[in-house]
Amino acid sequence: MNNDAFLAACRLAIGEAHVLTNNDDKAAYLTDQRQRYTGEAIAVVKPANTKEVAKLVQLCAQHNIPIVPQGGNTGLVLGSVPDQSGKAIVLSLKRLNRIRAVDPVNHTITAEAGCILQHVQEAAANAGRLLPLSLAAEGSCTIGGNLSTNAGGTAVLRYGNTRELCLGLEVVTAQGEILHGLRGLRKDNTGYDLRDLFIGAEGTLGIITAAVLKIFPQPKAQLTALAALQTPADALRLLTLAQSHCGATLTGFELMSDLCLQLVAKHFPQLQFPFNQRHPQYVLLELSDNESAEHAGSLLESVIGAALEQGICQDAVLASSSIQSRALWQLRESISSAQAKEGKNIKHDISLPISRIAEFIADTDALLQENFPGCRNVTFGHLGDGNLHYNVSPPLNIPAEQFIERQAEINRVVHDNVHRMNGSISAEHGLGALKREEILRYKSPVEIALMKTIKQALDPLNLMNPGKVI
């Protein structure tokens, strides 16, 4: 059958208005978030519910049409856009945007894959609960995308990645069948964990259409502090100190190099820098306390006081209101936008054993300066869970395009050092198409073979997001 017959069947299944074939209508779905790559697609299809997703997948199987599932299209590794062959469809999940249930007693919320993360956070808050998953793109990324990449964010230290927050999934398989797994159970020891197969699979095994997520009691107080330090090693000392003082109330611990905040100051001058002088490193700490603001304040003051007394940090500011706390978080959350305004850069989303982070930064900074003199390291990330965004910007005197041409060389230096220290070249962004070949250098043949076996078993026609991950 030709594409005309396939498209006619799609229109019959979900309505003509939701099958986009005009180039202008498709354009927003074909280009990645960083505006560096544009693919092609037969059409963009926008089903309204799980049954319509299943029908479309069945049609794709019948017509041998590859499927690229897409949520908010905020990914950074080309996982949610099609290749340039023009053979695939983009299946947008944006219309699957209902909150199906909130169960405050079971502490769960059931949301469809196209729900914007921020809207799910708000629905939980309206029920007096907290959905702790939080990241810079929360106003546009979707729950399905968060699950398909096992997103991390700023609260992993306390609550874990998206995988740890998910209790159940509804999935459309590669055959167009519906896996009904929205049970919301914390204990279910009845065989293979199918849920975890689909989380982090980037749509290559099936299409997540809904999920049951854990929610938590709203903390009575959230307090924030920004500490100024000399080195990443001091940041690790501060982390150990904060954990010993605060335990599970420590929910955020973000490392930022001075260059990060210099870029923020340059491109967002309206954001106030809280110190009178600059320091090499900064850590943003947040406590979430279920007892009281006074208790949280006492804990935070004791940590910062001990850190100053022991010479771990040189200065610190404690937010005394939610407005001041928000201002400190804005500094952290504006780093990626400031980098984008500064120009093209080479991004690395890596994870390491926490104990080796300082060593990695020192060694890799030195290696890069030796091989690429003058490059600027924009290093920030979730220190408490070992996730660094280790980004490399061009020297000031070299055009960005010329520097980007050496990306493969720079990646080799960074990724080889990550591997040497038992880390991962993708902590929370996934592999997509961007790192599909790169991962072959670092995963063992046994791991790759097992992944291929799973892919073949669940998607024998290789129609689910082909060319991504493996």
UniProtKB/TrEMBL annotation:
<dbReference type="InterPro" id="IPR051264">
    <property type="entry name" value="FAD-oxidored/transferase_4"/>
</dbReference>
<dbReference type="GO" id="GO:0071949">
    <property type="term" value="F:FAD binding"/>
</dbReference>
<dbReference type="Pfam" id="PF02913">
    <property type="entry name" value="FAD-oxidase_C"/>
</dbReference>
<dbReference type="InterPro" id="IPR004113">
    <property type="entry name" value="FAD-bd_oxidored_4_C"/>
</dbReference>
<dbReference type="InterPro" id="IPR006094">
    <property type="entry name" value="Oxid_FAD_bind_N"/>
</dbReference>
<dbReference type="InterPro" id="IPR016164">
    <property type="entry name" value="FAD-linked_Oxase-like_C"/>
</dbReference>
<dbReference type="GO" id="GO:0022904">
    <property type="term" value="P:respiratory electron transport chain"/>
</dbReference>
<protein>
    <submittedName>
        <fullName>D-2-hydroxyglutarate dehydrogenase</fullName>
    </submittedName>
</protein>
<comment type="similarity">
    <text>Belongs to the FAD-binding oxidoreductase/transferase type 4 family.</text>
</comment>
<dbReference type="InterPro" id="IPR016171">
    <property type="entry name" value="Vanillyl_alc_oxidase_C-sub2"/>
</dbReference>
<dbReference type="Pfam" id="PF01565">
    <property type="entry name" value="FAD_binding_4"/>
</dbReference>
<keyword id="KW-0274">FAD</keyword>
<keyword id="KW-0285">Flavoprotein</keyword>
<dbReference type="InterPro" id="IPR036318">
    <property type="entry name" value="FAD-bd_PCMH-like_sf"/>
</dbReference>
<dbReference type="InterPro" id="IPR016166">
    <property type="entry name" value="FAD-bd_PCMH"/>
</dbReference>
<dbReference type="InterPro" id="IPR016169">
    <property type="entry name" value="FAD-bd_PCMH_sub2"/>
</dbReference>
<dbReference type="InterPro" id="IPR016167">
    <property type="entry name" value="FAD-bd_PCMH_sub1"/>
</dbReference>
<feature type="domain" description="FAD-binding PCMH-type">
    <location>
        <begin position="37"/>
        <end position="218"/>
    </location>
</feature>
<dbReference type="GO" id="GO:0003824">
    <property type="term" value="F:catalytic activity"/>
</dbReference>
